[in-house]
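Study this protein:
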Amino acid sequence: MACDSKILCFRHCCSKSIFCKTVPEICPICKLCITEYKIMPFLVPYPYKNAACEPNSIVVRPANGNFLTDYHIVNDLHIGITNMNGLVFEYDKEGLILNDCSRWTNCIVINVIPSSWDSHWNETLKIMLKDSKWKSENYDEISMNCFNFVIEFINNLKYMNMNFTNKETICGKLILPKLRDALTYNFLFMKLESNEFFIS
């Protein structure tokens, strides 16, 4: 996390939370000097991670730009899979792409398996990488894209009866819960770009 994207939160005189980049000396609500807290200042968890540091995961990023400063809910998402070494496998119009890591440094990470499944995760991925269906000529923006690649991978994994039939189900079950947290963080970040604090 870049230090200019950190967000702090605390409570001083009431049940309202104060979000800021640095804790002020004077409470913005009661206007008194802060000597004690109802809730001590804490760092709001940063929702984005570097895919290279997240082995055996599903990773999601905007199709263009980055989540923190460019993403809006109507923008397309791109999705990939990391292996045991943190290498990213993704499918797009170029076909199957391995480890274009510079584009995956601030992504949403979704962990779906326990460590006891790591070996099976990587074996399933190796089998899929040999499948000729993931060549560039088979790519279609609507019907054969990055989501199809990840959905087929998860279905082949056969973990805990996890099975997805389409993009809507994988988004609803796996991506949207994480995306909501990320968008809340983005909202706070944008508020603090032009204000010293935000009260909620």
In short: The chain has four helices and nine strands.
